[in-house]
Amino acid sequence: MSPLVHGAAYGVVIVSALLTVIAFGIWFERKFAGRMQSRLGPTIVGPVGLFQPLADVVKLLQKEDIVPKDADRHLFDIAPILAALCSLGAAAVVPFSSSMVAADLDIGVLYVLGIGGLMVIPTFCAGWASNNKFALLGAMRAIAQSVSYGVPLVLSVLVPVILAGSMSVSGIVAWQSTHHWVAVWPIIPGLPAFFLFFLAMLAESNRIPFDIPEAESELVAGVTTEYTGAKFVLFYMAEYVHTLVGSALGAALFFGGWDGPFAPGLHWMVAKTLAIFVVVYWVRWSLLRLRADQLMDLCWKRLTPIGVALVLLAAAWVQYGPEGAR
Amino acid sequence: MHVQSAGRGRVDPHASVRSYDPEADMMLLHFGPQHPSTHGVFRMDLYLDGEIVVKATPYLGYLHRAVEKLCEKLTYTQSTPIVDKNDYVSPMCNEQALNMAFEKLLGIEVPRRARWIRTIFAELQRIASHLLWLGTFGLDLGGALGGGSTLFLHCFRERELILDLFEDVTGARFHYNTHTIGGNRHDLPAGWNAKVKAALATIESRLPEYEAMSLANSIFVARTKGVGRLDGELALELGITGPILRASGVDHDLRRDAPYHAYDEMEVRVAVARGGDCLARAEVRFAELRESIRLTRSAIDGVPEGPICGFKPIRQPTQVKATSGQVYAALESPRGELGTFLIAGGDTPTSPYRLKIRPPSLHALSAIPYILPGYTVSDAVAILGSLDPIMGEVDR
After folding, report:
1. I need a labelling partner for A11 at 20 to 30 A (CA). Which of A96, A256, B172, B193 fits?
2. Residues of A in contact with B374 (CB under 8 A)
3. What is the DSSP secondary structure assignment for residue A223, as one 8-state letter?
4. What local confidence, expressed as pLDDT, does residue A1 receive?
5. Helix or strand or coil: residue A174?
6. In chain B, domain spans
7. What are phi and psi of B59, to 5 degrees?
8. C-beta separation of B217 from A288 below 8 A
């Protein structure tokens, strides 16, 4: 099978699987948040409200497509499409089992970081093109945030890369299945690196406590203030895909991906991904939001030095660690 | 009265933005009235340099309903339900403030039992109001799609308990119309004491959870500490009262300093904090929550027997008449000094010639041009939330 056909076939499968998971992820999040807030969550549409996300999508797609006066029409239209592409594109290199990966790139980690970092461009396009001051402020915040969390994100991902000696996501998982999970052993650069990755991932996917570009109590809805209907759905979906792919990467890079006993690899990968996904929700519905300058302070003054130290520790482990264990 | 200075340079709210920095590329942001976190229909014009607020100008009046004029047109007995809608988070206090002024004008003695019941209502209302403040402050800091809404809904769950208690007495959950000239309209139903105690126990047992989500949470502290500093002197100059004044280090509380209702028979421990920032305001309100629970608990068993109204039953709206007189009566509402000034007489003896309501929130909002500059847009939302403005009573 040629790589192109392989990629296209897997792409279709993974994108449809992701979107299905996200539809029910939204249902799960609303139920989960409801229980945390001593209410029921959706109950009306379908059994236990299971079809609520479908109803929401249908409702949103029916909405009038409003473009503000004096908006930059082309940028305004293309931004949500770019956002969806960037977030879905990152899923290409995520290995869902030892053989189930759309494109097993040698530089998969670099690719994922790059395409994840690209997300800021559609976000800024949207904020700039909306001709809305709240959207513009959100866009400015998104850029400042992207510059800040990018460094700790790269540093945290470098730890498994150095330990496994590979930049391919599948390669890192394969190494973990023969050695140890990165988050488990060596525990000192491994587990802190995962926490660093988790925080940076929250920032990258605009989740509380770092949902600063959206910040609906301050900026109404940030960059998406002027978006309605299908375009808003694309932004909303991009955010969820981003979170889900981020969780999948966390599972693959730090918790051995498809590695696990008794069950097929795919099951393990999905279980680990969803476990991280749930923690994201849990954090989201329990914490308040940081301020933009506090996020930058956290990223530059605390997370970045910690990241550098972890990378150095990982390098030292590879060089000087006990022969059998590394 | 001891004044503690929080030590921050005074901002001139009337200075033109042009005089700040002619090179700065400033943005004028219309913040409200249709903004999700302006607590109703408040509007500010924020001049921003990047995200820093350079100048803030508040605009009021989007919820003006001419309540004072209505009170001048309606008779004395008809205006109580109108003022219910002023501070719609603590309607009991509005009714009490209005009727206290009428009673003072007419020289009517309120029976002891009615005064105790009023005290209990006022304290329960304070608990409900502060709970609602905490919830909406969470929304301001954490957003409707996050931890803020968790705090919000939990606070609302507890507030429901108090609304249920009021419903048991008055039949209404929100706009009670239970106070009348000379006392109360509704007596406490049988078994109400036990319900109050149960509700208070529930609320008290859950307060530590809210503290864990707010005062003990490092993100909450990072967002509120040092934000929106207001020194006591400025607060006094602006006429700010209530928890905001006490958070700025001024020990002033009408419940203790000018007792009304049955407060002269109780010991009110006034909570004071020195910080003058949003965190101090939160601390003061938390302390007041506990104090109100303690006061209600101690008062609930001591309600004396007797009549609940010291005035003859009202049979027709024009029954109460006053031809002259000028009074001011004030009480400590959850937001500060809620006063009613009224001049009797004029063409119709059955209604006031002039009635002026002094809402604490209006004075709290007057601090905005002084304390917002220098902070970011995010802080502006936090500061506005910490002032706990209720636009219904600001605009009336």
Report:
1. A256
2. none
3. G
4. 65
5. helix
6. 67-395
7. -125, 130
8. yes
Residues of B in contact with A216 (CB under 8 A): 36, 143-145
> Are residues A133 and B145, on separate chains, in Cβ contact within 8 Å?
no
Query: Rounded to two decimals, what is the model's pTM?
Result: 0.88
Is the Cβ pair A287, B377 closer than 8 Å?
Answer: no
Sheet holding B27-31, edge to edge: B27-31, B43-49, B52-59
Higher pLDDT, B378 or A263: B378
ipTM of the complex: 0.85
Q: Which residues of B touch A134 (CB under 8 A)?
A: 29
User: What integer is the mean pLDDT of A285-295?
Assistant: 87
Dihedral angle computed from the Cα positions of residues B9, B11, B17 and B19, in that order, rounded to the nearest 10 degrees: -60
Q: Which pLDDT score, from 0 to 100, does residue B6 have?
A: 38
- The answer to whether the beta carbons of residues A84 and A234 sit under 8 Å apart is yes
Higher pLDDT, A44 or A103: A44
Q: How far apart are CA B363 and CA B338, in angstroms?
A: 11
With CA atoms as reference, the chain B residue closest to A36 would be B150
The CATH H-level superfamily of B67-395 is Cytochrome-c3 Hydrogenase, chain B (1.10.645.10)
Query: b/e map of A207-223 (b: 16 or more CB within 10 Å)?
Result: bbbbbbbbbbbbbbbbb
C-beta atoms surrounding A178 within 10 Å = 8
Q: What is the mean pLDDT of residues B118-127?
A: 92
- Whether the per-residue pLDDT at B3 is higher than 70: the answer is no
Name the token pair of B146: 């996050």
Flag whether residue A16 sits within 8 Å of chain B, measured between CB atoms: no
- The verdict on A226 touching B (C-beta cutoff 8 Å) is no
pLDDT, greater one: A182 or B297: B297
CB-count burial class (<10 Å; 0-12, 13-18, 19+) for A137: buried
Residue B291 above 70 pLDDT?
yes
- SS3 at position B52: strand
| Average pLDDT of chain A to the nearest whole number | 86
A36, A284, A291 member nearest B223 (Cβ): A291
pLDDT per residue over A163-180, tens digit each? Answer: 888 888 888 888 888 888
Task: Compute the distance between CA of residue B275 and CA of residue B227 in angstroms, rounded to an integer.
Answer: 10
Residue B336's alpha-carbon distances to A42, B96, B227, B296, B367, in angstroms, are 40, 14, 21, 19, 14
